[in-house]
Amino acid sequence: MQIGVQNFVTRTPPRFDTKEAERTHSLQRLAAACRIFGRRGFSEGLLGHVTVRDPELPDHFWVNPVGVAMHQVKVSHLVQVDPEGKVVCGSGMVNPVGLLLHTAVHRARPEVNAVCHAHALHASTWSSFERLLDPITQDACIFFGNQALIREPRVVRDPEAASRFAAGFGESRVAIHAGHGIFTTGQSIDEAAWWFVLMERCCEAQLMAEAAGKPTHWREEDARWLASVLGSPTFGWLSFQTLWDEIIASDPDLVD
After folding, report:
1. Which domains does the chain have, with CATH numbers?
2. Spatial separation of the C-alpha atoms in residues 90 and 83, rounded to whole Å
3. For residues 178 and 126, what is the distance between their CA atoms, to the nearest angstrom?
4. Which of 42, 132, 192, 193 could potentially form a cystine with 120 if both were Cys, beta carbons 3.0 to 4.6 Å apart?
5. To which protein family does this belong (predicted)?
6. What angle do CA 78, 190, 84 make, to 5 degrees?
7. Intra-chain end-to-end CA distance of the chain, in Å
8. pTM for the whole thing?
9. pLDDT (tens digit, 9 = 90+) per residue, 7-18?
10. 3-state class (DSSP) for residue 175
11. Average pLDDT for residues 19-35, to the nearest whole number?
12. Triad 158, 77, 190: Cα angle to 5°
């Protein structure tokens, strides 16, 4: 079905009559986010994990399994884990370190329904500078005042370290983990995935700009205004719909 411009801008996040319908929707969007990440080259080998809360069991999460390439993930591949990271639905294996980090953030942030992380080239490279993104472009302004920089723990091996990681995330929408990469969150998987795609591009833009010279910054009041308008959960959700429309048209098997 063709979606006209007027219809597109009036799209709103869906409402569900049942938890089962909500779960089906979330898992389809989770699989789509994985495909989009894979297509954009955000994952290498077994790296990269995306989680979303289960609508009925909020302390349980769905995640893509290790061993399945991001660009090939289907709904049927996804697995559900309990608060301890044990697989309770599905047959795939999961990344234990990734789950430690994601579970800690979900536990500390009840409003966060989805968390995205992958070893995207530019985001991982930018994280080595241990700096927040600067408001040098309109896109980068979206993250102004809503980024965390997590220097320690640099390596997470146990739940205690994961809790410190989540504490370092604070209430921010996104985080730069020193020497590791970026983590993005959202009220929906759509929103979290869009922030990841956009932030990776912003990291690329700042690396390019600083290689060429000294970029100027937007004024703080203008950056804050853009962050409040273009950085809302609804805007993040709506922005992802362009990616959803494209991936479901090209990869309809992702819902299998």
Report:
1. 16-249 (3.40.225.10)
2. 16
3. 9
4. 42
5. Belongs to the aldolase class II family.
6. 40
7. 20
8. 0.94
9. 556 799 999 999
10. strand
11. 97
12. 80
